[in-house]
Amino acid sequence: MQSALKKIHISWPLVFIGVLYSYLGYHTLSGHQGLLKWGEYKQKISGYEAEITQLRSKRKVLEGQAYQLRADHLDVDYLDGRARQILNLSYANEIVIWLDDSP
Q1: In the predicted model, what is the mean pLDDT of the chain?
Q2: Same domain, 82 and 44
Q3: Most buried one in 11, 84, 86, 92, CB count within 10 A?
Q4: Average pLDDT rounded to a whole number, residues 44-56
């Protein structure tokens, strides 16, 4: 009987270590910063990078339009076209055909 108790007494550290390793292993795989979350984070990062490149290209277009409206480099034809488009005005003897700018 005492030999059985000694075996149980000796195996408690092993049980504790086994439970500890199981706990750490579980959180290594599925915790907030676990290996499975890394895949989700990489997908989010690639989505954000695509959004950044799209916004950068849109910013370049807007910067080009703003550059054309600066006082030191005023493009009168661009200004006239934008004013007509925004105000929806034209002369009586003109025919205006608006083209869609979206790709």
Answers
A1: 83
A2: yes
A3: 84
A4: 96
Note the Cα 4 to chain centre separation in Å: 60
Structure tokens at 67: 């550059």
* CA gap 49, 34 in Å, rounded: 22
Distance CA 19, CA 28 (A): 14
The more confidently predicted of residues 71 and 17 is 17
Indicate whether 2 and 42 sit together in one domain.
no
The answer to whether 78 and 69 have CB atoms below 8 angstroms apart is: yes
In tens, the pLDDT along 62-89 reads 998 888 778 787 878 878 888 888 888 7
Cα separation, 50 vs 56, whole angstroms:
10
**Are 14 and 49 contained in the same domain?**
no
